[in-house]
Design goal:
With about 200 residues, the protein is mainly alpha-helical. It has four helices and three strands, in the order ααααβββ. The protein has a three-stranded antiparallel sheet. α1 packs antiparallel against α2, α1 runs antiparallel to α3 and α3 runs antiparallel to α4. The termini are far apart.
Length: about 200
């Protein structure tokens, strides 16, 4: 199939635009987290934002490599979720968006690309879906901890690590200020699965 008349070309453009918007949304939420004193959560959200723009860049490169005219305009229509950037609600909303993209959007784009004979692009969409799945899981964990007020406390002893200096303490509760560098609690790495 000719790439320039394919649905895959439009889906690449849709995914590119969506990833750029996701990047901006995560940057906004990260700013909220920092304002609320959650430095580590802010850094984590900025890392996800960086991943989004890296994914967008990879799709942009695919489009440029396969498109006939270098200034070809790809018209797309897409929705975009607008949400309040309160940290508590944004984490759960973002987790749901990531899950939807991972389980519905990218697999659908992948199947269409495969049907049109673009196996390399189909696999690329699935790789992005894998990252979205991990993001959804991580964001769900954070949202649950915010909801249960257990981001910096645990029923059992766990390792708390300062994201600034690496100081570690094995206890039920994180410190208010790191005993080594003095950074506030918001820079403690909470114990989450697949956090690193």
């Amino acid at each position: 199939m000719d790439f320039n008349t394919s649905v895959t070309k439009e889906n690449l453009a849709r995914a590119f635009a969506g990833l750029c918007q996701d990047h901006a949304r995560y940057v906004f939420i990260a700013k909220s987290a920092l304002r609320e004193g959650y430095g580590y959560v802010s850094n984590l959200l900025n890392r996800i934002a960086s991943n989004k723009i890296a994914h967008a860049s990879s799709l942009y490169s695919i489009i440029l490599e396969k498109i006939k005219k270098s200034k070809d305009n790809v018209n797309i229509e897409a929705g975009y979720p607008f949400e309040n950037h309160l940290l508590k609600t944004s984490l759960l909303d973002s987790a749901e968006i990531e899950y939807h993209q991972a389980k519905n959007v990218y697999p659908h784009f992948s199947k269409l690309a495969s049907d049109e004979g673009f196996e390399d692009i189909a696999q690329h969409f699935l790789l992005i879906a894998e990252v979205s799945t991990k993001n959804a899981q991580l964001l769900h964990q954070l949202a649950d901890k915010f909801e249960n007020k257990s981001l910096y406390s645990s029923k059992e002893k766990v390792n708390w690590v300062c994201s600034n200096c690496g100081h570690t303490d094995f206890s039920k509760q994180a410190w208010d200020f790191c005993p080594l560098c003095g950074y506030p609690k918001g820079y403690v790495i909470p114990p989450l699965d697949d956090l690193k």
